Model the fold of this input.
Amino acid sequence: MHIFEEWISQADQRPAKRPWVSLCYAQSLDGCVTLQRGRPLVLSGAETRRLTHWLRSKHDAIVVGSGTVLADNPQLTVRLVEGQSPQPIILDSRLRTPPNARLISGHPRPAWIATAEPTAPVHRAALEAAGATLLFLPPDKNGGVALTSLLDCLAQRGVSRLMVEGGAQVITSFLASGLVDVLCVTIAPVLLGGLHAVEQALPHPLRLREVYVETLGGDVVVWGKLD
Ligand SMILES: NC(=O)c1ccc[n+]([C@@H]2O[C@H](COP(=O)([O-])OP(=O)(O)OC[C@H]3O[C@@H](n4cnc5c(N)ncnc54)[C@H](OP(=O)(O)O)[C@@H]3O)[C@@H](O)[C@H]2O)c1
Done:
């Protein structure tokens, strides 16, 4: 059994007050998720892309930020392995997601959009007409969606395993919030000097427990638990 499945089964046995959160992304050797904010870049090889799809299939829902939707227009579906696609969720305080984003109009489970302000009624109506569900949540101190409220809301909606896939601002806020249970980082053998995954100093250093390292194709994957 893969260590991740063992961790998931342990998580399933705990009394669930909030979803179990795994943060999974790909970075360069120098810690960047892309060359330039807003520009997509494929970092992982074929084997680690397959791993990402396998990880998606193990979760009920998957979160990305509006920056990633605007830059990559991702699908976040499970295509390279057997399994169900998780419910996509977009963190989007200002409702910048276009109604024709693939996570809404091209997805078997149109996205839930977590937003902090019930403004822009015209855009709201267009998103809902395209199939999106809007979740109105309190803002955090930076004006983004408050992540503890997001997890409470998702627990009420039956989400018990949540995967966070990026981009940089979302990775940084989840790590800073202390809400991440497991980290899975794919490291591609490339140097970028670009947009760092963790863009700001965290409140304190985060050290992984139970660290596992595997090589898949040309990439290295680091797994570990966070408190
Ligand atoms: N290598 C990888 O694994 C990977 C994965 C995903 C993306 N990427 C890359 O990452 C880049 C996008 O990253 P990004 O940092 O620009 O955008 P992002 O992290 O995808 O989205 C950030 C946006 O999400 C919204 N948001 C709402 N609540 C938030 C909260 N609590 N914390 C953080 N954000 C919140 C904010 O926009 P509002 O204020 O409008 O709400 C914020 O500007 C793209 O170039 C993409 O290609 C790489």
Q: What stands out?
A: The longest strand covers residues 20-28. The helical segments are 3-13, 46-57, 66-72, 121-129, 147-156, 168-177.
